[in-house]
Amino acid sequence: MGVKRKITPGYVVSRLVVILLLITTAFPFLMLINMSLKPNVMITNDFLGLPNPVYWMNFSKALKFIFKPVLNSIYVCGISLFFIIIIVALSGYAFGRMEFKGRKVLYSLILAVMMIPYTLLIIPNFHIVKGLHIVDTFWALIIPYVAGQQVMGIILAESFFRELPGDIFEAARIDGAGEFGMFARIAMPLSKPILITVGITSVVAMYNDYIWPTIAITGGDNVKTFCQIVFNNAAGKGTNDMGLIAAAFIIGTIPLLIATASCLKYYVQGMMVGAVKG
After folding, report:
1. Which H/E stretch holds residue 199?
2. Which of 85, 96, 189, 215 has the CB geometry, 3.0–4.6 Å to 162, for a possible disulfide?
């Protein structure tokens, strides 16, 4: 039999605080679900009341409303993620396992980029995409996302590759493997958790971004992203049906939930590796 825990006032208070925090965290999302199942008039007249009857029409209308913006967000995140992972893996390996002139200087510059607030880069980024004549195109989102999201990933990958046992690479080098061969056959398979961690954090940041798409995409709705469409409508720049907006938020969150849940095991491993080795 296990040792019976003694219930103390501190134990009770800590559990009550945890329960209170869980309720505080979950309540807004529960209210979002509640709103999505009610018509707009019922939300206005009885905000806290339960839906009676359940109004499923919000979801069918929301699916038509945000189907194209969600596809746009997935497309932008997919293309950006492809380039981010390639750059992070190659740069992290170069900084972590290779010796070359200027390595410390270049790595210090990457660290310095992290200290620059995101908002200070908005105006320079806009002038860059405007100069490239790609405003109101997907590339106006993809190029800045790739440039911005790779920084933290390079730092995590560099730390991971630097801490890998050198004997593995020495043995491969003795067997005749070149630098790229060691990268492709040894480093890449071992770096799956850290690269998935970088991928998830990057996708969540890009998918949920509202500020930059609002600045770079000002044309028609055909190229606007999910957050841009839904937040604009929630702010009153479109439909005022809050039940429809709530249902749109829920549907738009599903791709992120699927991506995160399918990679959760590797994400936790990557976070633990980064915490221990970083």
Report:
1. helix 192-207
2. 96
Q: pLDDT tens digits, residue range 93-144?
A: 999 888 888 888 998 998 888 888 888 889 999 999 999 999 999 999 999 9
C-alpha–C-alpha distance, residues 73 and 259, integer Å: 13
Q: Is the pTM of the predicted complex or chain greater than 0.85?
A: no
Read off the pLDDT of residues 212-254 as tens digits, 9 standing for 90 and up.
Answer: 999 998 877 788 899 888 887 776 666 678 888 889 999 999 9
137 dihedral zone (left: phi>0; alpha: psi -120 to 50; beta): beta
Give the integer Cα–Cα distance in Å for 255 and 265: 17
CATH code for position 91: 1.10.3720.10
Contact of 92 with 107, CB cutoff 8 Å: no
- Per the CB < 8 A criterion, the answer to whether 226 and 72 are in contact is yes
Determine, yes or no, domain membership for 189: yes
Give the residue numbers spanning the domain of 90: 60-277
**Any residues with CB less than 8 A from the CB of 178 and at least 6 apart, and which?**
none
Give domain status of residue 130, yes or no.
Answer: yes
**Distance from C-alpha of 80 to C-alpha of 151, rounded to nearest angstrom:** 14
Using a 10 angstrom Cβ sphere, with 0-12 exposed, 13-18 middle and 19 or more buried, the burial of residue 66 is buried
Residue 16 falls inside a structural domain: no
Sign of CA dihedral 76, 81, 82, 84: positive
| Lookup: tokens for 40 | 């707009």
Which residues are CB-neighbours of 118 under 8 A, at least 6 positions away? 148
Residue 43 within any structural domain of the chain? no
Work out the angle at residue 222's Cα, subtended by the Cα atoms of residues 219 and 226, and round it to the nearest 5 degrees. Answer: 100
